[in-house]
Amino acid sequence: MSQRYFLFIITFLIIYLAVLYLIIYFPLSGQISNEISYKEKTSQLNTLSCFDSNDLNEEKYMTYLPHSGFNNQRISLENAIFLSWVLNRTLIMPPILLTKKSIIPHRPFNILYRMLNGNLTQNMITCKRRGVEDKSCMFTQLDWEELMNFKFIKKNIRYIHREDQNLDVNELYSFLKIKDPESQVFTLAEETRYDFQFYDDENISKVSDDQFDHLIHICSLQRRKEKLIHFGSIYHLNRFNLKYKENIKFLKSVRENMIINHPVLLNIGEKISEQLGGLGSYIGIHLRLGDNGFDKKFGAKAEENVNLVLTKLSNEFESDVPSSTSLDEIEVSTNNLVPTKNMIESEKCIRSISPEQRHYPIIYLASDKPRNDVRFKKFFREFPCVFMLFSNFEKYLDQLKGVKNPRDGALLYRYFVPLIDGIVAARGFKFVGTPESTFSDYVARLHEYWVGS
Length: 453
Prior knowledge:
One of its GO terms (biological process) is fucose metabolic process. This protein is of the alpha/beta class. The chain folds into two domains: 38-256, Rossmann fold, CATH 3.40.50; 263-450, Rossmann fold (3-Layer(aba) Sandwich). It has 18 helices and 14 strands. The termini are far apart.
């Protein structure tokens, strides 16, 4: 009897130790797909160890306010992802505000919140009454995850899509079960356009960009005990003044991984690119001309920017044309052939021009203005084979006309066309953009991702 009892005790101990081992080394996965355990997140933190260890078991949040055009909103999101990571807070992610005209400008916190809430509330009423495709319906809101590759984001931060469509702060508080905003919310409200820059090294004593007025140490934000940190605008490519390598590396990775991943956009972009010879077979150009009204910044410099691009092309294209698509080779092999329906558009153009011109590159020109804009005259006079989206490839956009926003059913055609323009320009072997254009900056990033520097 004692021997049986002894065997029972031994068996029980073995089972107990095995279960304990599994619990410790193989914990249950989280309920949310993009959730990261606090233990894992803490191990990812950089050398700034400012957290109060007593607070690491309580989930905390952060959010910000979107404004301006698509690329300004994208830069704000990239900055928010970095802050979410470095502060170890779940990001309440506002949607992309897609508008028929730019009516939410960059403003200080309180003004921006009132503009967003007022305009979005009124727009929701209008769209509900007249329909999402009526011209008076000015906005649609698209979750970033519908457009971008979120693999890197899911791996590194926790996030929740913000669902209150009129950006009502009281609805946000209700969702987070915040009953006392004064003690549970820390609002970092800008009073000027670029009030503060975030920094991570106590040896930094001044801003790295003169547009900013003040410095805020990331460590001071890490120590905040409030449930929610609410930023206003966090737009600007130089919003961070960083010295720690891990921080610099992570922010760089965020930006490198913010890549368009919408299947329809990529499919159309690839088809048009094939008509130009395929990936890495032409030069992509983005020229933002603007005008002298709303878009004064680029309108005033339009001619200067056209000349700048022409100079770059004249100096560089001969040495940069890849050997696999040498126009001289095409000239030799096709000199006596007549264009057929099966020829790609770039080939048709090459065969239609004189032999003396066939050393010029194939160019895809993305722009906010049509081909007949007088400021393009000099450009088209210099290069014989220049292609533009609506002049040459409009038929490929038919597939885009049926794409709807899952949130409200609004057609996304008008908002997605510029992205296709950028995708095609990015797929050339070389890309030349417009100085100071956030769109050009993003196309250059896509180019580096798909083609290389």
